[in-house]
Fold this protein.
Amino acid sequence: MRKTIIVRADRPEDRERLALWFHDWLDELAFVSDNDGCRCCCDIFYVDASAEAVSRLWREVSGLSEWEAGTWEPERRLGPPELPYQELLRPKARLRRP
């Protein structure tokens, strides 16, 4: 299932929560794009994930784009999906699950 994820820079709690989501569901992700956002005001990721993984995303990060419709493809890199926000997972003790 294709999904666009958008994280606003003024919501750092969403970035931390999404780091945990990526960590928990990485095995269920067939594809994760590089960050397509400008990084100063938003981060944008395109994922191809199981329906269950997508259902665990919350409204504030759920976007809609041509990716879901299948009319556009982000640039794909070779190899398995990489884990976005790895730097947030290193000090895992400070991240709390909602």
Observations:
- The CA atoms of residues 31 and 79 lie 10 Å apart.
- The beta strands are 2-8, 29-32, 42-49, 62-63.
- DSSP finds four helices and four strands in the chain.
- The longest helix spans residues 12-25.
